[in-house]
């Protein structure tokens, strides 16, 4: 992949997430959990009072986290029980998932996995 990016985009040392977007869309590749600028991780069974800072604290030690999002109820502003974390490196994301899936946070056991693209059947 590094050689491909170097030839196509002149990328020398670290790849650009923007270049990955171009490569994946041009090739028609759809990688579940891959958001173009990183690997999207689904975190389920968060407490109603959970916020973004807890996700940063939990996932940060495993590698580069680019984004965290707790999904909130529009009316109450309480966490709906799940959130998403985006990490730039696949291996670091995989280790975070393996380490944090089944992790007890307070009185809840978290379910952590790569985000999957759901396909709806008509």
Automatic annotation (TrEMBL):
SUPFAM superfamilies: RNA-binding domain, RBD (SSF54928)
Residues annotated as transmembrane: none
Keywords tagged on the record: RNA-binding
Domain named RRM: residues: 39-117
A Pfam family this chain is assigned to: RRM_1
Coiled coil: none
Signal peptide: none
Cross-referenced SMART domains: RRM
Domain of life assignment: Eukaryota
Protein name: ELAV-like protein 2
Species name: Xenoophorus captivus
Record gene name: ELAVL2
């Amino acid at each position: 992949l590094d050689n491909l990016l170097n030839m196509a985009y002149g990328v020398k040392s670290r790849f650009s997430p923007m270049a990955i977007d171009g490569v994946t869309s041009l090739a028609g590749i759809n990688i579940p959990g891959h958001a173009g600028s990183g690997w999207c991780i689904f975190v389920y069974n968060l407490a109603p009072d959970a916020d973004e800072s807890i996700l940063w604290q939990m996932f940060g030690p495993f590698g580069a986290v680019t984004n965290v999002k707790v999904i909130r109820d529009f009316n109450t502003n309480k966490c709906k029980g799940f959130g998403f974390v985006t990490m730039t490196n696949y291996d670091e994301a995989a280790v975070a998932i393996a380490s944090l899936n089944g992790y007890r946070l307070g009185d809840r056991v978290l379910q952590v996995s790569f985000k999957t693209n759901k396909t709806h059947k008509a």
